[in-house]
Amino acid sequence: NHATAFTLTKCPHCIAAKELLAHVGLQEHDGTLLNIDVQKQAWRKRQIPDLVPSQAAGAITMPQIFLGDEYIGGNSQLQAMHADGGLVPKVEKLLRNPPPPFPPEFKQPSNAELLGEVDPAFRRKWQRNLGLLDKAVGGDVSSLLIMLEGVSEMVVLCTDGEKSAVETYAPDAAGPKGSDDSEEMLYCQVALENNETLFIDDPSKFPGLEQNEDFVKFGYGYYIGAPWRQRGGTLTGTIAIMEKVPDKLRPEHVKIVELFRDLFQADISDN
Hints:
about 270 residues; alpha+beta
């Protein structure tokens, strides 16, 4: 690839930057642009501080753009470079003389490394808080979980120990993520991919998820899950309720789960 862009899926500044790069001849489909979507690969955001110059370090906004191994900055810097007439010559030079491989190889964090970033006392506190969520939705659901997104798996950060099916989803347990748009995608993975709460009150309405592990292996056909993201950090996941029995999860429970998600998201951002 001749250029690299770290982006977010629906970020308007990211979209504008990629459109401009495509306009000057750098596109994903022909391999001249490597687009790293940190919404789908949150762990890749950890790579950025090692790549940007020290004077540009600090709060990392999206997009982050490189031409070859030269750091450009965000969309504003890219647009300004084009307006000043500097972008096209740089791109033409890159296309004539492909740069060395970039970005450099980056070690994927293990599940243990991700879990190690969360204080054990914090996890115990939120295990207790899941008990409060259980009471808030009626006290009779099967499984309450806070999930952490790993590179290739979803990992259990917390469960309500008294209620959750610990034999299936104990703390630190992990389930393999399915490939994008496949029937094996976990419910929590879908909520994260879409960046919105997923409510399944009728499995027949979601035929595309009929082969996922939650349903096939453990029998959870009903689900409410809200995605969370650590502000200023790289941890992502969901807070979720899963149920085997119909009619236990109701529309009014969605707002309750989202309220607990907001509280958790603020708390882990300060962790």
